[in-house]
Fold this protein.
Amino acid sequence: MSQPESAVADAQAGGPKNGTPEQGQEPLAKLAKRYGLRRAIARPSLPVYLRQLWDRRHFVMTYATSRNVSKYSNSAMGQLWQVLTPLFNAGIYWLMFGLILGANKNIVNYPAFLITGMFVFTYTQRSVSSGAKAISSNLSLIRALHFPRAALPLAYTIQEFQQLLISMGVLVALVLVTNEPVTWYWLLIPVALALQTLFNIGASLVLARVGSTARDLNQLLPFIMRTWLYASGVFYSIEDKVAGTNKALQWIADIMYFNPAAAYIELMRDLLMRTHEPRPYIWMVCVFWAVFAVVGGFWYFWRAEEKYGRG
Amino acid sequence: MAELTEELSRVKAEDSGVPSTDVRVHPNPEPSGGPESGDDRAGTPTVIVDDLHIIYRVYGAATEAEKGNAATALLRLLKRQGRPQMKEIHAVRGVSFVARHGDAIGIVGRNGSGKSTLLRAIAGLLPPHSGAVYTDGQPSLLGVNAALMRELTGERNIVLGCYAMGMNPAQVKEKYDEIVDFSGIGEFVQFPMSTYSSGMGARLRFAIASAKAHDVLLIDEALATGDRDFKRKSQDRIKKMRDEAGTVFLVAHNLDVIEETCNRVLWLHKGKIKMDGDPKTVLEAYNAV
């Protein structure tokens, strides 16, 4: 800009032409109010926040897909790993627990039982642990661009969901290989996945807020996750181990099934395998956790919206 | 390199006790007709910064005494001390100014004077410790870099970057060719960004970031890279944005860019405004120190 023009601009800015008083004559806060300026940092109400998040849905989806694509972009086989990774995982669990350890002879179709549990649990586990890092590992993004911060944990969960869809393909193929029949219950699989996804979103939102300030969480999470894995009946049947034939102990098993991971695993097994029948109690637990986590998660995360990215 | 030594000599001069008074230079306030006078929005405030203080918390700034091994960490826990590495940095100390439609404001100051922090606060990305920033609309930082992924192709990054700035699919489609053209990277758009030269990367990032119309645009050192041709192109684009009655803030160490693009310069020193006025006067004073 040449000098005369800038002088004009400033003259207009400070001059009486627009009726603007000289800086300092009027408190700046009042000046701001008069011109309808708003504070740069203000947390929107929850409905507005959710609408903003909805407006950013394309970003959330693209960010999730991009992360998945970039994850394997350096390997020679590229995106093939998206299928190979769950396949190898399934192979190793099958080998270890099905053949070598030969655990749980009394569980019918143990490989399908085990791998269902493992994939379902892994989905929740990975969503939650990546959610814990969603804010703390994206500080530069948060400090550069404006968007509802919930987009980040949400994108991480969707990234895991995309991986899960491939795992589910592997899982269904495997269940068919092990001679499970296709039943009407299979139609309910998307419902079960939707419920679990809602829970994962809520849980990762909560962990994202906790992880944004509690820096030691990432060191602790592996231990918490392993404990959760053992408590969720991935390798064994909670029903058989706790209650067995003793129906008086059923309430202890039911308390253990209140663990969301255990409930989602149980639900998926019930749907996929003919020897299991979905119990209403399991459905209730699954629905409860989905609703509770997603409502509570958004609320809890939103409460600290303006604090993310600081310090 | 020349820039760096220049900067260092400036720093030295400042430390050696040159009187530092808070000078405010107001340009000639004579109202006269100009190209912007037709737009009745010109001259109304877009950004008001009112006695802003920003305090940063920094982790991991280990001192001599604190050598971060397990034993000292345990000792610290037992003594119930907080993490001594956690330092508070008072980056912006009581800054006030009013920016208006049609302003292009350059911010100068030595490293660590709070320029970038001030921009982030205006963008609403850093909460103020005290004071406030009032804005008209959503100021946006020209900093889409953080959303891009080096492993992905330019194509994917353009789409990702546009979405990150809040565009919808129709807008992305509309802007895509323009971004590729402006960046001038040609067929490299098919290759991962990790294969780009630093100049190409910078050009693509600027092209993406400036594709969106902003009411208030904050630019932090984006014009330092790129060849002369691209520099001119990007300056033209900034001027265009300014003419669209927006407000542009520009942080740069390259004072020529500021002199050519801005109509007002803020000189920040240790988190305070040392001088505020037209580019010629402020930059002369800044260079004299």
Notes: The beta strands of chain A are 38-39. Residues 1-37 of chain A form one domain. The radius of gyration of chain A is 26 Å.
